[in-house]
Design goal:
The protein has 2 domains: about 130 residues, Jelly Rolls; about 100 residues, Arc Repressor Mutant, subunit A, CATH 1.10.10.60. It is of the alpha+beta class. The radius of gyration is 19 Å and the shape is globular. It is about 45% helix and about 20% strand. Strands 1, 2, 3, 4, 5 and 6 form a 6-stranded antiparallel sheet that branches. Helix 1 packs antiparallel against helix 2 and helix 4 packs across helix 5.
Length: about 250
């Protein structure tokens, strides 16, 4: 991104129900469009590939790139803003953020949008600039990370027990080097990231199925319902049951 900050930015927010699609179908823009996921999930066709964005993720549409969004069965809640093409801002279409910095910035932007404060626009511009920088950093790290296959493996085998020794061996590294390299790429240790992956999967099951809490815990790799509930409350500030009730 160029060193100058954005002079003017409009930030919108949409909360959409299951099956929602953009009314005008596949489309393009002459500017950059960014979307920050506050909740739910979006299935997106962009630039010839299909990606799925969930809470905490960011979507990036470069000028002239065709894209189409569709909400998952749980709906979606997201912020969106535009960046002039002249800003030379470039990212992957889907930017993952295990450290949740983008989600925190999205919450701050959302809060500022509701305030009748004379310096609100300056604050929002500062937050949007921070989002852009963070997205570029995360996108670059994801493109060069030699450990993406390890995260994919963990996501696909949640019910299995994952030891540092096994994961390090799969990555072809010593335990020490593996932990250090993984944290450098994601901002989290492998076990911290695995916990977040499991909790995100649990959120999806809580909102899209009628599984009991015990079944959700088992399906996402937690040793028991009590530990699952304790970790869920620590991460999200509420119980799994209250989370499900609030989304019903």
């Amino acid at each position: 991104m160029s060193s100058s900050t954005l002079q003017q930015v409009f930030v919108g927010r949409l909360k959409v129900n299951s099956g929602w699609k953009v009314a005008f179908g596949m489309h393009t823009h002459g500017h950059v469009e960014v979307m920050l996921m506050l909740g739910g999930r979006l299935r997106v066709q962009v630039g010839g590939e299909t990606v799925e964005a969930g809470k905490g993720d960011a979507l990036f549409y470069a000028p002239g790139v065709p894209h189409l969004e569709e909400a998952s069965p749980e709906g979606a809640d997201f912020l969106f803003f535009n960046v002039p093409a002249s800003q030379r801002f470039s990212c992957k279409p889907l930017v993952k953020d295990p450290g949740r910095r983008l989600l925190t910035l999205a919450y701050w932007i959302s809060e500022e949008r509701e305030k009748p404060f004379e310096k609100r626009d300056r604050i929002i511009r500062a937050y949007v600039d921070a989002v852009i920088i963070e997205m570029e950093k995360l996108s670059e790290a994801q493109q060069i990370s030699p450990l993406s296959h390890i995260r994919d493996h963990m996501m696909g085998t949640l019910t299995k027990s994952h030891s540092i020794g096994f994961l390090a061996k799969r990555a072809g590294m010593s335990k020490y080097h593996f932990i250090r390299s993984y944290k450098k790429c994601t901002g989290l240790t492998p076990m911290q990231d695995l916990l977040l992956i499991r909790l995100e999967a649990a959120c999806n099951l809580l909102t899209t199925t009628e599984m009991t809490l015990k079944q959700v815990a088992e399906e996402t790799g937690f040793c028991d319902e009590y530990y699952f509930s304790r970790m869920f409350r620590k991460q999200y500030g509420t119980t799994p049951g209250a989370f499900r009730h609030g989304r019903s």
